[in-house]
Each structure stands twice: as structure tokens, then as C-alpha cells.
Amino acid sequence: MAAANIPVIDISNPSQDESQVAKDLVEAAIEHGFIYIKNTGGDIPIDAVQGAFDLSRELFAAPLEEKQQCKYQKNNMGWAGMQYETLDPKNQRQTLVLLTQVNRVFNFGEFIDGQPQQPIPPSISHRTSQISAFRDYCYNLSLKLNTLLGIGLDVNPPSFFTTSHLRSSGPSGSILRFLYYPPLPLTPTAQPGIDVRAGAHSDYGSLTMLFRLPRQAGLEIQLPSGKWAPVPVSPPGTESDPAPPILVNIGDLLSYWTNGLLRSTMHRVVFSGEGNGVEGETDTEARYSIAYFCHPVGTSSLGLVPSERVRGFKGAQVGEGERGVLTADEHLQMRYVYSVSVQEKDRCVR
Ligand SMILES: O=C(O)CCC(=O)C(=O)O
Ligand SMILES: [Fe+2]
Description:
It comes from Cercophora newfieldiana. It holds the Pfam family DIOX_N. One of its GO terms (biological process) is small molecule biosynthetic process. Belongs to the iron/ascorbate-dependent oxidoreductase family. By secondary structure, the chain is an alpha+beta fold. It has one domain: B-lactam Antibiotic, Isopenicillin N Synthase, Chain (Jelly Rolls, Sandwich), CATH 2.60.120.330. The chain is about 25% helix and about 20% strand. The protein has helices at about 20-30, 45-60, 65-70, 95-100, 130-150, 160-165, 250-255, 310, 330-345, and strands at about 10, 35, 80, 105-110, 110, 115, 175-180, 195-200, 205-210, 220, 230, 245-250, 265-270, 285-295. Strands 1-2-12-9-14-7-4-3 form an 8-stranded mixed sheet. A 4-stranded antiparallel sheet has the order 8-13-10-11, with no helix packed on it. Strands 5-6 form a two-stranded antiparallel ribbon. Helix 1 (about 20-30) packs across helix 5 and helix 2 crosses helix 5. The structure holds 2-oxoglutaric acid and fe (ii) ion (FE2). 2-oxoglutaric acid (AKG) binds near residues 198 and 219.
């Protein structure tokens, strides 16, 4: 299967022209909704990413009772198992019963003064400052990406997105998520092409930053043709970098805010099966990934983004007068409600 043709962009090379980098980022966000950000340690130290994966392994290896004390809450924080129940008649086998352990997530909400606002499993509670520091790296990188998007879209003022994301202005729905997908032997009935590790979805917020480990297969995006294409962890040109690129994607909120100009692309995590996925990647072992879901401050108004390019976009779903103005919090609530109604059948907790 041909891999998705997602551009690789270097945003931390000082010799590059910022406005060109910003334009490249915007074009990729319009065309693909996904962008690889080269990771040479300039924005997030390589050690910090490695350390976060080590922490994630410790967290998921902690005793079940500890994680159960931190069960997923309505505030979107905590530990959860994601369960998928395929109601597609073609695939309506025992997925429900046999694949309920398809993955586990732990969502960290915002920290205040370096302190978590949710229960943390005792096994890792001595490392909350590390989680807080990693969250801060992600937050700072998300501000930089928002600044570049503002410049690339010629928003007036260009700092528009960045200002809306400043945590000094109030709380947001931003989440740092650790994900764990058990190895195939633990899900012996999994059938490549039928069963999935994470069902098809789009993300809710403005931007998502995804960290993956070398050679761990599974992520696919849906192309405009409707076909699915694998997203290699280390695309051409990044193989000798000290870490795989950070994969950034546009979420529903930013797509809504730009009236559909920036694309929120469906994606999923599959068992690709022998010989079907990306060469050199495997999906038989346990898979770990880390996502940072970036959201604007909850009170931010999502009136159409002040950019000529956005206003002139003719693929818009609704006219400016008809779209109403939601806040970021209202958009998130709407998305949760929608998710519960359509995914009731998927029994997906996210
Ligand atoms: O684990 C991955 O590669 C993707 C996870 C994802 O898409 C999500 O949590 O929204
Ligand atoms: Fe996602």
C-alpha cells in the first residue's frame, strides 16, 4: 500500500525564511491536514521525548488497582480502555467481546503551578514534574505552530491564534495523552483488515502533536479518494534524525474556525498484517504513542478567522452569517455530545 505523501517541514532551522516555512505549513494543512515536523531536538529535547515514553511504559505497567483509582472522568482526564464494537454487518464478528482491550489511554489535563489537577497512579507520582515539563514543551511548540499558521494564513493580527491559546488567559481543553496498544499475542483473534487498534476518527481540538516510536506501524489517514494510506513513522529524509518527526494534524475546531479551509483528516490505527504496511515497521509488539491535543482557551470565540484567505474560501460549509459563533468550550461540548451519539455503537471512550 502506498504511504501517505505528507510533507516534512523543518521549523527550527534558523537559516530558513519564517514566512516561507509558515506558507509551507499552511499549504500542507489545507491539502493533507497532516504535517511532519522534523525533530532534531530544537523545540523538544530528544531526551524529554524518550523520557516521556519511559514514563508511559511505567504507567501502563503499574498495578491495575492504581490505574482504576484514576478512572476516566467527564472532565476528559484519567485512565480508560477504549472499546470498539464493530456494527458494520460485514465485520460483525466477535470484535465486541474479544477485542475490548484493544488499547488503553491516560489523559493528563492541565497542570496548575506544575501540579496535576487529577489523581496520578502512585507508581509514577514522584515524576509529576517530568510530566509537567513535557506538557510545557508541547504547549510551547503548539504556540509556535499557531504563530506560524497565523503568519501563513495572513491573519490580522498574525498573533491571533497564539493569543487565543495563551494559558495565562484561562483554562482550555488541552490534553496530554499516553496511549498503549497491547501486543498481538494478547489479542490473538485480531484480524488484519478487519480489527483495528483505534477506530476511524478526527481529533476535536485545534492541533494535535503525535509522537511515535521507530518501527511501530499502524497509523493510517483517509485520502480524499476515501482510500486509507499508512503514515510511516520515519518518512524519507528523516531516517538519520535523532528522533522520528512529530506528526501534527489539524483538528475539527481549527477546521471549523477556518470554515473548512484547513482540513481535519480522518485517521485510525490498524493491524496492517504481514507485508501490507510500511517496510521495516511491525505491528506485532506492544505499541506506545503520545499525543498532545491542543485547544484554545475555553472562552475563545470561534467567529470566522480574520484572514482574506479564509473569507475567500469557497469550499466553505456555511456562510459567515449562518455559522453562529461558538466558544471553544461550546465546540468541545458539541463534539462530545456528537461523539457519544454516533459512537454509542462503537463504545469508544476518548
Ligand atoms: O496512536 C496513534 O498513532 C494515534 C492516536 C490518535 O489518533 C488519537 O489518540 O487521537
Ligand atoms: Fe487522533
